[in-house]
Design goal:
8-stranded antiparallel β-barrel, 8% helix, 175 residues, mainly beta, single chain
């Protein structure tokens, strides 16, 4: 599945290579709550976006996120690295689909469970808007639904789910 996604993104990039690319970089922040997390939290990071003509784009991003599960029994800290394909049906609106590699540290409060670092692949889809604030700056805002299954060690009486919807906003500056 990962190979098919990478091949698809590569083909999109090749098809759009004839158009001059516009490259943007900047900070982004988000607000999300994983399905069974104790509470909603903020995340922050940066994105690099390349517009491949008028209808296609790609984005790479890295963020830091942290959430707690089981009334603080587990803290999950992660650095998701995401690759996203963007389709613009109109110049300021886009649909997004992609995948992320999540390097996650699970800190357990229970003495009998040892902390661990795991890697997970998650998938996402969503959409958003990209509003020009001038010739070299854009304001972005989107919503994405992320499918991500942490492999928690057994916690008594818990089958924790951690898919989530994230709302992000960012400023992108043309390079």
């Amino acid at each position: 599945m990962l190979k098919k996604t990478l091949l698809t993104l590569g083909l999109i990039a090749l098809m759009a290579a004839q158009a001059p690319a516009q490259i943007y970089f900047g900070p982004q922040g988000g607000y999300y709550k994983a399905q069974d997390a104790d509470e909603a939290v903020l995340m922050g990071g940066a994105a690099l976006r390349m517009k491949l003509g008028s209808a296609l784009g790609i984005e790479g991003s890295i963020n830091y996120r942290q959430e707690k599960y089981g009334d603080g029994a587990v803290t999950a800290k992660g650095w998701p690295i995401m690759a996203t394909g963007l389709i613009y049906p109109i110049p300021i609106v886009y649909a997004a689909v992609g995948f992320g590699w999540y390097n996650i540290t699970l800190d357990y409060k229970l003495a009998e469970l040892k902390d661990e670092t795991v890697q997970q692949v998650g998938w996402h889809f969503g959409g958003g808007v990209e509003l020009p604030l001038g010739p070299r700056v854009k304001l972005t805002g989107d919503v994405r639904y992320v499918f991500l299954d942490y492999d928690f060690k057994e916690m008594p009486g818990k089958d924790l789910k951690n898919n989530f919807t994230v709302f992000t906003a960012g400023l992108l500056f043309r390079l």
